[in-house]
Amino acid sequence: MRRPFIIDCDTGTDDALMLAAAVYHDDLDIRAVTSCNGNVGEPIVANNNINLLEYFGVKIPVARGAKRPLYDRPVNEGACHGASGLGDVVIPEAKNGLVSDVIASELIYQIAVEEKGELEILVTGPMTNLALAIVQHADLPGLIKKLWFMGGAIDGGNMNNSSEFNIWVDPIAAHIVLTSGIADMTMVGLDVTMKAVMTEEDIAELRTVGTPAADFAAAMLNFMITHAEERGEGAVMHDALALGAALDPDCMTYRSCVMDVEWQGAYTAGRTCLVNRERPEMGPNIRAAVTVDTPRFRRWLVDAISKSAGRQ
Ligand code: BDR
Ligand code: CA
User: Fold this and answer.
1) Pocket of ligand 1, beta carbon within 6 A
2) Which residue among 51, 129, 194, 261 is least enclosed by CB atoms within 10 Å?
3) Ligand 1, residues 13, 14, 188: which to mutate, most atoms within 8 A of Cβ?
4) Are strands 62-63 and 185-188 parallel, antiparallel or unpaired?
5) What is the pLDDT of residues 274-295, one digit of tens each?
6) Contact 171, 162 (CB under 8 A)
7) Residues with beta carbon < 5 A to ion ligand 2?
8) Which helix (H) or strand (E) covers residue 185, if one does?
9) Ligand 1 pocket check: which of 150, 158, 190, 193 to mutate, most ligand atoms within 8 Å of Cβ?
10) Does the annotation count 238 as an active-site position?
């Protein structure tokens, strides 16, 4: 049986690569892609999701979602993802985009109810949509089989020395989700994703596939590598690595921990904190990635995108 799955993202250069790897995977039944404010404003994110899915030749509904975080942070105007969120890569506007008329937080709940406890969710942006769904529906945590997310770090950050972007944007949402009681949560944090770096070799291989999805992935990786200096990082696969945890779990090692999010500190809001001593009653709530086998992950990602051959 295919795994019922929702992808909640803030597309975004590396979110787009994650989508290119997810949509052709035979194990997944992607019921919806939900859009959240993050790398760029939500209207641009939703537009990117609609355009990308049509460009990839798949029919998956896109839901519009949160326009701003629950925490008081400004809406991002592109930064290292460019104003469009897709760097310098341009794809056609969708002609028949499949858009849900239900807002993301409600759609997540509706699908969770329909799937009767089997739904898995991957979040690769701020957690605002999922937090809103949890606040509105107290039974939702018990209906989610597994949550995979890219965000936080056991140590370090990219917004300051202790906060990673997705959690920094909306620490209140992340706190709600991490303390919600979802039974099985896997965190793929920045300290691990920074090691999941693609190379020119991967671009060359993708260029031989000859599908729009693989050409798109090659162009996006090329943008990331050629603009590495101004972006502050090269072809780092934060979001695709979180998908990798769901589909090729053995490419990482993990540790179990008690984790919460600091959302009140003037300088530390957005930090993921190990609270084994402070909150022992919470019990281990997170399985956090600690190491990645980078060559294995690169192989997996190129193969996943190459599955577009024969499908496009
Ligand atoms: C995360 O922040 C975003 O810029 C990326 O898409 C990724 O989800 C990395 O900190
Ligand atoms: Ca993202």
Assistant:
1) 12, 14-15, 39, 124-125, 150, 158, 164-166, 190, 238-239
2) 194
3) 14
4) unpaired
5) 998 898 888 999 999 999 999 9
6) no
7) 10, 12, 15, 124-125, 239
8) strand 185-188
9) 150
10) yes
Amino acid at 303: D
By residue count, the chain amounts to: 312
Mean pLDDT of the chain: 96
- Report the alpha-carbon distance of residue 157 to residue 91 in Å, rounded: 32
Q: Which of 77-81, 84-88, 137-141 has the lowest mean pLDDT?
A: 77-81
Count other C-beta atoms under 10 Å from residue 117's C-beta.
Answer: 11
What phi, psi does 69 have (nearest 5°)? -75, 165
Return the structure tokens found at 122.
Answer: 């991957």
Distance from the CA of 39 to the center of ligand 2, in angstroms?
7
Task: For residue 22, give both structure tokens.
Answer: 């997810």
Backbone angles phi, psi at 306, to 5 degrees: -70, -15
